[in-house]
Amino acid sequence: MNQIANISSKFSPAGLRDKTRGDKVIWAIVVVLSLVSLLVVYSATNSLAYKLYKGNTFVYLFKQIAFITLGIIIVYFAHRVNYTIYSRVAKMLFYISIVLLIYTLFFGAKINDGSRWIKLPIINLTVQTSDIAKLALFMYLSRLLSKKQDVIKDFKKGFLPLMMPIVVICGLIAPANLSTALLTGATSMLLLFIGRVSFKHIALVAAAVLVPVIILISIAGAYYDKAEGKTKELPAVLSAGRIPTWIKRVQDFMYAAKSEAPYQVQQAKIAVAKGGLFGLGPGNSEQRNFLPHPYSDYIYAIIIEEYGLIGASFIVFIYMVFLFRSIRLFRKCPYAFGAFLALALSFTLVIQAMTNMAVNVGLFPVTGVTLPLVSMGGSSFLFTCLAIGIILSVARNVEDAEGSAEPAKEELA
Q: Could you tell me the pTM of the whole model?
């Protein structure tokens, strides 16, 4: 009887609260976005599942349930680990990620002339190595920032050692996934700014990055035929790798009229227009039958179509609350590494979310980024869960530190 009582106490609400420590608001956000994901993924994949699986519309729903379950398990175990351990493995994980990125460039699965994935043997799960690299980079940067605060304003001792990892990782990601490289670089520079790196050094990097961006925009303009509404024939030097794709996306964003816009952009705009203020209602999306990847890259357009401006605003609000709680955690964390790590991981998730939303409503050129915790499960979903678990690990240790400080305050009183 005592054993049964012990087991029941562990799974009681009080027992679960004891096991799941850290910021309760962030835990609630994980649950809310997971529920939203189930609803929208089921709706977005309904027609596709019906066609591919002979009327069985629950296939992708069950798959998403499995990913969410696995993701929450990852969050739980990651948040139980003391975050200082992540500092110890940061350097090793950074070097491993470099090897994986190089391997992916030459031997990874190629899609649209870009090699972003490697397939894990036995389980046949395809992993996007840039997800590993981003996590490793932010761990390593947080470690370096915490150790170099005394020389942070010095160019050689402070700035260069911090910039080298960013240049290496972003440089290896860029050939196959330029948008992810730019977002990772932007998040890194934001972290350096918060870490008290000299603003003039950051401005120097921004100017250096702006040069190739301006060159790309200039090339896109020079090789666009406005009369024909298409890209002119590119010279051989501009036809290598994914350069034509980059040029085409910039041209589509800059010049294409509504009738000439890329197919997915047109369908996303139709979904947004149909949504209105209140939307068509859960499961009533029409554009899921026409939008490419409505369950991943364009899931936010489906949310707008079904739940309207109110539902879309709610999703933005949820991510803003997540960012606010992470900033609050940054201010309360007594140790620099944990503070920088929590902020870096939250920044990258929120920036990714805002980019996905901006693409879906036509405010940003087409990219391949997903909506964190909402898009259909994959390696990106699991690494998002790992990142949130690490943030909650920092929150748990801050909570423990505050708890141990309370008795001391009472004694002094």
A: 0.88
